[in-house]
Amino acid sequence: YYTYADNMHSTIADGDKVLFKYIDYTGTEDWSSVLGHIDTPQVAVDVIPDGSGNFIILANRRYGENNTQDMRIIKVGSDGAIVWDKIHTISASNIFGQKIIADGNGGYVILTNEIGGTPILYKISSSGVYENHYEYPQSDPTICYGIAANGSGYHLAGEADNGTDKDGYILNINLDFTEGTNISETNPTSGNEGFRDIVAHPNGYLATGSCDNLGEGLNDVWLVHYDNGFSTELVETLGGADEDYGVSAVLVPELFS
Known about the structure:
This protein is about 0% helix and about 55% strand. It contains no helices and 18 strands. The protein has strands spanning about 20-25, 30-35, 40-50, 55-65, 70-75, 80-90, 95-100, 110-115, 120-125, 130-135, 140-150, 155-160, 165-175, 180-185, 195-200, 205-210, 220-225, 230-240.
């Protein structure tokens, strides 16, 4: 089967392949392409435009007898032709990339994790060449899924496993990639909190994820609003009788006030 995107994965299933499609503004599929190999399952998790009509795709692979995991980063043109195709790994580590963003200087920053629980920022050039990576081990195993960037740095959102359950976790990384102040966030009326995304806006940040539901259903969407200094302004839980998960957030500028 083909997998396009699932940022909840920490491992890759046999048979997974990268599928990417170009769909125009009317919803019409103009072209699609499948990449992969029977002996190297891989899954795509993110795609961004490069501002010149091309697209940068972040995928993850599993290969070899030891099931080693690394990242595959592909640049494709607007016609689907591959411009470049790069494999990135970190020695002696199994990694899983989650998000890729432009760094404002022509290159890209990838949010990845060592699957045992260490967040990593991985930097590449505009041509996909490795430049540097930065590891941020925490006192508890921590996985980050979302990233927001602004003039103050990079802000990573995820979850930390404290041994009993999980807590929402924000890692603030300075523009020079040194670690800043981090935040552990819990919801007093639930448990097993975790963030899946974070978005920056002019007055602060919104982190979204899920938490246990002590009423109907097993999980609620969990939203935490922060000001620009990451003081908590508002915590919300949303959901009904079904299992509800917050996976991503998008700022709609014309509706923001």
